[in-house]
Predict the structure.
Amino acid sequence: MKRIKTTLFLIIVCSGSIFSQQKVDKVILNGKIITLNDQQPTVEALAIAGNRIIELGSNQRIKKYIGKNVQVIDAREKTVIPGIYDSHLHVIRGGRFYNAELRWDGLTTLAEALSMLKEQALRTPKGQWVRVVGGWSEFQFKEKRLPTLDEINTATGATPTFILHLYGQAFLNKAGIQALSITGDTPNPIGGLIQKNPNGEPTGLLIAEPSAFILYSTLSKLPELTMEEKINSTKRFISDLNSLGVTSVMDAGGGFQNFPDDYQITDMLSKKGELNIRLPYYLFAQKPGTELEDYLKWIDMVDISDHQTDDSFEGKKTEYHVQGAGENLVASGGDFENFLKPRPELPPAMENQLKAVITELVKNRWPFRLHATYDESISRFLNVMEQVNRETPFNGLTWFFDHAETVSDANLDRIKALGGGVAIQDRMAFQAEGFVSRYGKKAALHTPPVRRMLEKGIRIGGGTDGTRVSSFNPWIGIYQFVSGKSLGGLKFASSENQVDRISALKIYTLGSASLIHQDNERGMLKKNFLADLAILNSDYLGIKEDEIKDIHSILTILNGKVVYGAQEYQKLAPKIPSAIPSWSPINFYGGYQSH
Ligand SMILES: [Zn+2]
């Protein structure tokens, strides 16, 4: 009898605590809510308790939750979507530099780009640079061409200037050449070219031949922001991601980004509960030849199974942890994605180096991702993985390829057999013209073969590869997969390789979550899923195709909290501090230049 009483008491106490956890604190009404849940594709309203969605349905059904201390958000018939999940963004590195950069992302004329250069050169103090670090291509401009070195010099004068164009080349103005002490005698780095004029003087053009090391390493010589500025810069960048509806990012590491030293800012923001994005991140081997040592050291330092999820933080913080290894596992496996140059042939030493690293990762149950642009490289990587799998079985280990633009059908089957996925990006939006002129129209029709991946049931996630190659705006990728077009308007994809708008959105939400098996709680608006969502400025399913790339959020909710608001929702959102230093281009132009 005593035992029964205790059990009853426990039931009452437990259900009491469940009830208090389920206390609704927000409802969204009058929405055109795209849930991406095939069982309940659209609803008018939903209710949020803490960091979870607890109910969806008609206005009438959700209105019953309205009461004291419940925030009512009127979506005013706008489209609501699950938060975007960018599965490939260099956000930690990007945040450290964001306030120092002039972004040409989204600009539509070269004339505007040059006038921004001119204005920014005038306000940039002595000792600092004007820098445009990727995120654009000449085809997005009405003029359909690159700036010339003369135009850049005229616009910028005595202010040192660095402009990165994809991972193919960089422009330095005369003041920049001088500031870096580059002369006719400066030797070319391996895989790179310092262009010289007939007199043997540097012209200002740095070319990846095909290695991007010359571009990366030059950029790393430019002055960094101070610690205080980097913290502000990271917050500004994340806020701009929130303004595009992004709530989760998988960070893909990066060159010149050392662990743990270069993670201090995001570490600190996470500790203070000020990291307004979910951020699992990957560790990227830094030095050619010592990759295995890097990974052995990190395997020792980091308990990969100890993920601090939102639940362990009682819903107060978003997750931030080492998710695995990559996207660079061994430098000899780096097949650079510069479609203007011939495909690089990987050295014969690659296989043994990669095998040693992957074997350790599998043994220690470390998930990994691997940069792989071309099918030829993918074949060789898969040979290595299949060999490792025979000796040390993968046994369900989470892994995926990044990019995979030209992956073949046969290799897709091999990826699936090994339990892998593919993270795809919007590279063709920026580089389709270059790809077509090198490989022909036919080769571009299925690049990347997104429909074949979907048909085969391979896990695929969408991403941007911002900020140095592509823009950080995920809507460019969604636009590319829906329209089959580049930013320059070239229709390169076959109609069989285009996807409908719902499928494209799924790739950039649920798909990314599925890459690392998080699709049981995010990527859809569904009962008990995480409350990550965005109210959009326009009607995603109804607007013209060309307008998709300029979609943004007017209200973004992450983990049940409003993190961004514009227009009528601005008052619901935390204030965004202005960028420091005060001359930061972000204060004058913002980040993505939408029209
Ligand atoms: Zn990559």
The two ends are 72 Å apart (CA to CA). The mean pLDDT is 93. The first strand starts at residue 26 and ends at 29.
